[in-house]
Fold this protein.
Amino acid sequence: KNEVEQSPQNLTAQEGEFITINCSYSVGISALHWLQQHPGGGIVSLFMLSSGKKKHGRLIATINIQEKHSSLHITASHPRDSAVYICAAHFGNEKLTFGTGTRLTIIP
Amino acid sequence: EAQVTQNPRYLITVTGKKLTVTCSQNMNHEYMSWYRQDPGLGLRQIYYSMNVEVTDKGDVPEGYKVSRKEKRNFPLILESPSPNQTSLYFCASSSPAGRTEAFFGQGTRLTVV
């Protein structure tokens, strides 16, 4: 069964802390997305990964295909990073399966 | 500006009254998809389309229809809405599936009474 699991479900941290959100999946995938959803509800794509590592500003995403695991890191976290972060995987058949999300709160 | 546009943003309707939520993208993307988001269940895929006239079921297709007559448009049709279809709906596109980042519409909050 195609499954995507995220951890933690909720994360509260102080401004400036290094943040890690984890995503694991059950079987081989063709690609994995990291998404950000702000309280207003809109969804923004942060990264699409099929291997290795990508970096945009303070955000870094990595994927380990052998271990079926991906991580999203935020360096020097800021209150504006507070959002729900969602990973989603393409299990090769073009369908997309989502994790349940990680609610991140950064306290000033 | 590259975007995916959904309409309407908010909709309250009654059980059984057919409705259509429109989705349009201006990026010439092949792949388009519909999702619903419910508290505690997260995002789930309803239908997707790999290209014009090619559609396929996602994980929760029951009660929904879609069509892809043009590359830019991918409407979601609820022929006979029921209260359990009350949800937040998102349309997204990418080119092609899993090869590029996805662009999401603003969301449509549907309430069926």
Observations:
- The mean pLDDT of chain B is 94.
- The longest strand of chain B covers residues 42-51.
- Residues 16 and 80 of chain B are 4 Å apart (CA to CA).
